[in-house]
Design goal:
Thrombin, subunit H; about 350 residues; alpha+beta; six-stranded antiparallel beta barrel
């Protein structure tokens, strides 16, 4: 009982002392609005005055404490990224010179009378052997007589060596027959007012020229020898110029135009070639597809029926048809593009260009 009384008296004494010592300070803090709550010391930066994002041109560089730089480690050798290049597939393992020498020929077409030894209304141009059967691609205007409105059925194949450093005359090789040509000429205002654009024809080699023929006397050239024939054919299969079916024309491409053109001496006895820049395309049907290509090259008369070649693949990509006058004679060469030519030949002749 005495212990309980003593504990009570001690608790009361402690309470009275707390009131005496702490109450004046507590009352003073209330009067001074002092916050006695516990605060965590923090350092904050007020970046934005409002909650709306602000874009400012001024940048404040805050000091950054220096840190120890990490120890540099050697960078492993990494192979550079491969540059993807367009793969150009060559059409033949033969050199371009070999292909041209064994496939590009000269044509003399007209009306030949062996009995009377006459050869009239002669038209001269270039042709391209396009398959082992000896079929020759050329222009319609070479084999067709616009005045008489009929075909020049008698066409002879001649050839001179390429390259022809000694300026040798061509020799007479074969007699041909006409396989086909467009019966109806096709015109387009976007192409020409008086020139048709389906300017192609197919001939086929049918025989060698007999030594008894008098055509050599008329043309003034020699007949080909057995060695000469071996350049164009082997075991009755003809060498030919393969077609490059992968090439897609682009303005600025450099292309080869070649044919039996007239040279400085006004002769057309050898293959001449030029490298020209592709400068445009003429559409005949507004399809926006490559159809009639314009090449900036100085082709000459005699190039008709000649070859347009992609020098990278060595393949045939077009048939030379016309030469524009432009500002200078022969400034632009006009060629029927491969795909358009294929479609036209199938439409007009039912012939499949392969």
């Amino acid at each position: 009982m005495r212990l309980q009384t003593f504990s009570f008296i001690f608790s009361m004494a402690i309470t009275i002392m707390a009131v005496v010592f702490f109450f004046p300070n507590f009352q003073k803090s209330i009067k001074n609005n002092t916050d006695l709550s516990i605060k965590i010391a923090t350092s904050t930066v007020n970046l934005l005055a409002t909650s709306t994002p602000v874009v400012s041109e001024q940048i404040i560089n805050l000091p950054i404490p220096k840190k120890s730089l990490p120890i540099s480690k050697p960078i492993p050798n990494i192979a550079p990224l491969a540059v993807v290049k367009e793969v150009i597939k060559e059409v033949s393992s033969k050199s371009l010179g070999e292909l041209i020498n064994s496939s590009v020929v000269q044509l003399y077409c007209g009306y030949f009378s062996d009995e009377g030894a006459t050869f009239s209304d002669i038209s001269r141009g270039t042709g391209i052997i396009i398959n082992p059967k000896g079929e020759i691609l050329t222009n319609r205007h070479i084999i067709y007589d616009e005045n008489l409105k009929k075909a020049r059925n008698d066409c002879f194949v001649l050839k001179s060596p390429f390259p022809n450093e000694k300026s040798q005359n061509p020799k007479i090789y074969y007699f041909t027959e006409i396989v086909g040509y467009p019966a109806v000429e096709k015109f387009s205002d976007s192409f020409s007012e008086d020139k048709y654009y389906n300017d192609f024809a197919i001939l086929k080699i049918i025989s060698k020229i007999s030594s008894e023929s008098k055509v050599n006397l008329i043309l003034g050239f020699d007949y080909a020898s057995l060695e000469d024939y071996s350049v164009l054919e082997n075991n009755n299969l003809f060498n030919y110029l393969p077609i490059d079916w992968d090439y897609n024309p682009k303005d600025g491409d450099f292309l080869i135009t070649l044919g039996y053109g007239v040279d400085a001496s006004h002769m057309a006895n050898k293959i001449t070639s030029t490298i020209g820049k592709l400068i445009g395309n003429i559409n005949t049907d507004r399809s926006l597809k490559p159809q009639i290509l314009l090449i900036e090259s100085n082709a000459t008369a005699g190039f008709s029926g000649g070859a347009l070649i992609n020098p990278q693949s060595k393949g045939l990509i077009g048939l030379i048809s016309w030469i524009t006058s432009g500002d200078e004679p022969g400034k632009y060469t006009v060629a029927i593009f491969r795909d358009f030519l294929r479609d036209l030949m199938f439409q007009d002749l039912n012939f499949e260009l392969k």
